Amino acid sequence: MTTPVRNIAIIAHVDHGKTTLVDAMLRQSGIFRENQELITRVMDSNDLERERGITILAKNTAITYRDTKINIVDTPGHSDFGGEVERALRMVDGVLVLVDASEGPLPQTRYVLQKALAAKLQPIMVLNKIDRPDARPAAVLDEIYDLFIDLDATEDQLDFPVLYTNAKTGVAHRKVGDDSTTLQPLFEQIVTSIPPPAGDPAGVLQIQVTNLDYSDFLGRLAIARVFQGTLKRGTEVAISKLDGTIQPTKITKLFTFRGLDRDEAEQVVAGDIVAIAGVEGIQIGESITDLANPAPLEPLLIDEPTLTMVFTINTSPFAGREGQYVTSRDLRARLEKELLTNVSLRVEDFGATDAFRVLGRGELQLAILIETMRREGYELMVGKPEIVVRTENGRRIEPLELLIVDCPESFIGIVMELLGSRRGEMKKMVNHHSGRVRMEFSIPSRGLIGLRSQLLTDTRGTALIHSLLEGWTDYAGDMAMRPTGALVCDRAGVSVAYAIWGIQERGEMFVGPGVEVYEGMIAGENAREDDMNVNITKEKKQTNMRSSSADEAIRLIPPREMTLEKAIEFIADDEYVEVTPKSIRLRKKVLDAKKRPKRWQEIRASVDASS
Ligand SMILES: Nc1nc2c(ncn2[C@@H]2O[C@H](COP(=O)(O)OP(=O)(O)OP(=O)(O)O)[C@@H](O)[C@H]2O)c(=O)[nH]1
Ligand SMILES: [Mg+2]
Description:
Elements: E1 5-12, H1 18-28, H2 47-52, E2 59-65, E3 68-74, H3 82-88, E4 94-100, H4 107-118, E5 122-128, H5 137-150, H6 155-158, E6 162-166, E7 171-173, H7 184-193, E8 206-215, E9 219-228, E10 230-232, E11 236-240, E12 246-250, E13 253-258, E14 261-265, E15 267-269, E16 273-277, E17 287-289, E18 307-312, H8 328-341, E19 346-349, E20 355-360, H9 363-375, E21 380-382, E22 386-387, E23 390-392, E24 395-408, H10 412-421, E25 425-431, E26 436-444, H11 451-458, E27 464-474, E28 486-489, E29 493-494, H12 497-503, E30 507-509, E31 516-517, E32 522-526, E33 532-534, H13 549-552, H14 564-570, E34 575-579, E35 584-588, H15 600-610
Parallel strand pairs: 1-3, 1-4, 4-5, 5-6, 28-33
Antiparallel strand pairs: 2-3, 6-7, 8-9, 8-17, 9-16, 10-15, 11-12, 11-17, 13-14, 13-16, 18-20, 18-21, 18-22, 19-20, 21-34, 23-24, 24-26, 24-27, 25-26, 28-32, 29-31, 30-32, 34-35
The structure holds guanosine-5'-triphosphate and magnesium ion.
């Protein structure tokens, strides 16, 4: 007899507690030794996930409850990684929809729920963080019903079970305040209300690859769901490639999931999730099927990217000093490798041979890719993110976003003004009378570029923003760009405290003293709208006078630290961010001050001409 199986994905808005809940599920499933030390959010296993405290990649694990095996996919909640969720949903028969019992449903809750309902997956509602002092589970549950209705859920779908959890302590309740002390009600609910996977173990083999992973011991692994038939080790199978061709392959190693480990298996039957090692060149979306009688599955289709950025080789005077991979061949090979695992990305050649247009879902997604590349030893330059504008039936259209801003009441005016300047239209304002308000805007996606940092500055770090792609709309026309110019180095050299002291009143510096600079490098933000060339290398004239009062008066304001994300948000059309393993520099596209266009119109014209 085969083991009963359930396949679930955990989906939610960012930070609502998915990975924490998986920790508790793993712990309580008896997979670890008594007293085994466990790190928190153990599924967030890559460096950037741990540093940022967010999930970036969807990951599989599995536990056993009584005699049922539960395959679990932990998914990211940040909207930029929505592609991960879309493909995770292909692997499962049901979803745990987590909602923070205080925050309630937010844009990404809507997005993931919409995808789950469209895929006809059975939901279990999990109101998490019920221990928060401001938890309001009853009201949040009402909001969830409203959301289901808004998404045209069927009667059946509306009839979802609800559980109340504290993922941190690992407790699930059927009713708020009942005497449960474990997650048992949740495990029980999964086994009873998530349907067992369909598919005949004796049928024609049908498997779809939904993820790729890499293991130091096993190399490349294809993670796939067996929809029908039984995959046996050592058999010859057909891989149905995305272009429709069939490629015969022998399966040499199979694994199933158990906790954080993978167990080698002789065979994997319909319904289960498998990791297959040793299949060269296999890609996400491809099917594995019977060689004699191929029955490939439809390839996965996911939402199109909405944001694009130009990646190009580093042409700054400091190119090649800090990185190992600097040529356009290196860049191309790395981007092609990324495409294999990152299904929501696209890469196109762009104008000159040394540049690529990389399309993704958001600034964070691309920033994570760039950060990963620089840690691997790459040098590159990236341009200002732009929203994809399409032409359909002769109309120019652009993506439109639903934006939710949560901020203290005192900032309502400031927020409305800022969003107005970015063509945001307020749709709704809700006041929970907690001192904070929640405003909903409809805004072209373009209006979101650089918005987060500006909003945080304007609201002294108090605003929370969430957005969701809502659809496409007529191109709204030009939009206000960065209202300030740059302070641009007019020559190469090393920055000097005395010079900075003289410049800093013009705006805000990005470089401190003792930094090597080049002509055309950006040293700070000008308070005025045009660019200003500055000499940051100027030493104080030596005089015979005793150290005068001027020396003592040199008080430097600490420079603004430009992280990769801040730099990407900051740059204008005619600027690049230069990225190397050790440095993030900002620069003008045209370094030579004499050749650089000065006025915005000219900049636009020169940018248009080069693209
Ligand atoms: N008070 C309280 N905090 C919780 C609970 N569950 C999770 N948290 C906290 O919420 C934060 C986010 O938790 P994560 O598990 O990383 O959330 P996530 O949904 O996996 O986040 P992403 O994967 O980035 O979307 C962490 O600081 C957790 O400790 C809970 O039940 N109660
Ligand atoms: Mg997570």
